[in-house]
Amino acid sequence: MFDRHSGGESAILVHIDFQQSASQDKHQEDLQEFVELVRSAGLDVMDIITAKRASPDPKFFIGSGKIDEIKSVKQATDANVIIFNHNLSPAQERNIERAVEARVIDRIGLILDIFAQRASTFEGKLQVELAQLRHLSTRLIRGWTHLERQKGGIGLRGPGETQLETDRRLLRERLKYIDKRLEKVSKQREQGRRSRKRANIKTVSIVGYTNAGKSTLFNYLTTAGVLAEDKLFATLDPTLRRISLPQGTDVIIADTVGFIRHLPHELVAAFRATLEESVEADVLLHVIDAASDRRDENMEQVEEVLTEIGAETIPRLEIYNKIDLIEGAEPHIDRDDKGRPIRVWISVIKEQGIELLREAIEELAQEEQFNAELRIPPQQGRLRGLLYELQAVEAENAGDNGDILLTVSLPKSDWIRLGRQLEKDLTPFVVNP
């Protein structure tokens, strides 16, 4: 359903540096990361064309002079695909294809292709296809511009649709089917999370920028044997394992897909079932490439995605990995003014600081419970129901005026998450904290 790169394909890369301003930040990308993405997709880089502009050109995104340069380089190198390090509109993509007479892929299309190559489970393949179809739905006309309305006449009367309309209808039906299947997957994951909560087992989810070392850390902690390569998006399908920590605390640890700058919304939406492992986690381990020149920017991008999926309030532990590449850096734990661990400096490859990390995870997993008595009015029945789903209710009594008095005990992170889910401040319902 989507363009897939085969081995031996060669590409011309196009990267534009825009003048630094808040309005152009959505177009600004990193060239080194772009080259790594292309190589992760299995393509040979024939040439890199760069330019500087104040803003994108409405028709070609780049200037007409650069279009001529791409055509010349294409003829000289015999490259068969042009890849832009930016998100192009459907019209811009079509205009460039016509001008250079070659296949054009934008940044979103490239990331989707990498995801399609990495998906190995049925769920992962469904999620990738959903993202591809949503992206493709705005570009259908590219493949059908040569077709007109189906002809009439004896034996030639069609259903009264253009081929484009027929294809759009089929695409909508396929999207509905995939949504239903992924909804089933989401419910199965929810059942698993409820079982873990009943067993009082905390879930720790590993998040971070792609290629920060998440899967390497996951393998070291769990001996799971998950694919860990020096490639962007080497891990796509989520993996969960149970581990025991130094003082005997058992936790479920989850390895998830890496984030990237300007992660396409199609992917965030399509991978909601996978990302729920992060949204519903008790603790997030934010793995950071401590030696990266773009460390702070990458951290900001991860925080943006966590906010987008609703995980910004979950307690987290920052893991500064690859300290072996920083001169003078030693493994240690940074703590806040209350003594809680907030940052651990380690090197997974050199096996430095791993025991400190285990200790820090255990401290956060043994989170303080939220114990309180709540007064819930009759019209707030959903809050009562959700508390029972979380198995947080220890006692229930009838109050005045039909109110319900509940004695509850649940992790503070679950109490915060509950307020976000209901989109309201739950403080007024607390009688005795």
From TrEMBL:
<dbReference type="GO" id="GO:0097216">
    <property type="term" value="F:guanosine tetraphosphate binding"/>
</dbReference>
<comment type="similarity">
    <text>Belongs to the TRAFAC class OBG-HflX-like GTPase superfamily. HflX GTPase family.</text>
</comment>
<feature type="binding site">
    <location>
        <position position="235"/>
    </location>
    <ligand>
        <name>Mg(2+)</name>
    </ligand>
</feature>
<dbReference type="InterPro" id="IPR035647">
    <property type="entry name" value="EFG_III/V"/>
</dbReference>
<dbReference type="Pfam" id="PF16360">
    <property type="entry name" value="GTP-bdg_M"/>
</dbReference>
<dbReference type="InterPro" id="IPR025121">
    <property type="entry name" value="GTPase_HflX_N"/>
</dbReference>
<dbReference type="GO" id="GO:0003924">
    <property type="term" value="F:GTPase activity"/>
</dbReference>
<dbReference type="GO" id="GO:0005737">
    <property type="term" value="C:cytoplasm"/>
</dbReference>
<dbReference type="Pfam" id="PF01926">
    <property type="entry name" value="MMR_HSR1"/>
</dbReference>
<dbReference type="InterPro" id="IPR042108">
    <property type="entry name" value="GTPase_HflX_N_sf"/>
</dbReference>
<dbReference type="GO" id="GO:0043022">
    <property type="term" value="F:ribosome binding"/>
</dbReference>
<feature type="binding site">
    <location>
        <position position="215"/>
    </location>
    <ligand>
        <name>Mg(2+)</name>
    </ligand>
</feature>
<comment type="function">
    <text>GTPase that associates with the 50S ribosomal subunit and may have a role during protein synthesis or ribosome biogenesis.</text>
</comment>
<protein>
    <recommendedName>
        <fullName>GTPase HflX</fullName>
    </recommendedName>
</protein>
<dbReference type="GO" id="GO:0005525">
    <property type="term" value="F:GTP binding"/>
</dbReference>
<feature type="binding site">
    <location>
        <begin position="255"/>
        <end position="258"/>
    </location>
    <ligand>
        <name>GTP</name>
    </ligand>
</feature>
<dbReference type="InterPro" id="IPR006073">
    <property type="entry name" value="GTP-bd"/>
</dbReference>
<dbReference type="InterPro" id="IPR016496">
    <property type="entry name" value="GTPase_HflX"/>
</dbReference>
<keyword id="KW-0342">GTP-binding</keyword>
<dbReference type="Pfam" id="PF13167">
    <property type="entry name" value="GTP-bdg_N"/>
</dbReference>
<keyword id="KW-0547">Nucleotide-binding</keyword>
<dbReference type="InterPro" id="IPR027417">
    <property type="entry name" value="P-loop_NTPase"/>
</dbReference>
<comment type="subunit">
    <text>Monomer. Associates with the 50S ribosomal subunit.</text>
</comment>
<dbReference type="InterPro" id="IPR030394">
    <property type="entry name" value="G_HFLX_dom"/>
</dbReference>
<keyword id="KW-0479">Metal-binding</keyword>
<feature type="binding site">
    <location>
        <begin position="233"/>
        <end position="237"/>
    </location>
    <ligand>
        <name>GTP</name>
    </ligand>
</feature>
<feature type="binding site">
    <location>
        <begin position="208"/>
        <end position="215"/>
    </location>
    <ligand>
        <name>GTP</name>
    </ligand>
</feature>
<feature type="domain" description="Hflx-type G">
    <location>
        <begin position="202"/>
        <end position="369"/>
    </location>
</feature>
<feature type="binding site">
    <location>
        <begin position="321"/>
        <end position="324"/>
    </location>
    <ligand>
        <name>GTP</name>
    </ligand>
</feature>
<dbReference type="InterPro" id="IPR032305">
    <property type="entry name" value="GTP-bd_M"/>
</dbReference>
<keyword id="KW-0460">Magnesium</keyword>
<dbReference type="GO" id="GO:0046872">
    <property type="term" value="F:metal ion binding"/>
</dbReference>
<keyword id="KW-0963">Cytoplasm</keyword>
